[in-house]
Amino acid sequence: MSNVDLVVSDTNADGHSVGVRLRTQRFDGTVHNWTWHRNYDGNGTTRGFLSSALDDNGIAKAGVEVGVFEGSDLLASCTTGMSTNPFA
Predict the structure, then answer these.
(1) Sheet strands (E) in the chain
(2) Of the candidates 87, 77, 20, 8, which has an alpha carbon nearest to the alpha carbon of residue 55?
């Protein structure tokens, strides 16, 4: 997968940072959680990250996870459903 545009907005003045990452499901059903991309810029900011993913075991589906962080600790997160890879 190339040209994957990940976007995350910080909408709370709580001192926490936010992050977004790609999640992919391989053809064997296992899930790969990719690296977090973080927005440290504070409340009212949006950051975009152009990413890509290559998995030798194939990418059958993809989704995203967004999270709230205190330093490196993940405090809360939520995920989207997985969408079928139309190029698989």
Answers:
(1) 4-10, 17-25, 31-33, 37-39, 45-51, 61-70, 73-79, 83-84
(2) 87
Q: Over the stretch 34-68, which tens digit does the pLDDT of each residue have?
A: 999 999 999 999 999 999 999 999 999 999 999 99
Q: Are 66 and 77 in contact (CB under 8 A)?
A: yes
Which two structure tokens, joined as six digits, stand for 65? 């996870």
Query: Does residue 22 contact residue 7 with C-beta atoms inside 8 Å?
Result: no
Which residues pair with residue 49 across a beta bridge?
6
pTM of the model: 0.93
Sequence-ordered alpha helix ranges (H) in the chain:
none
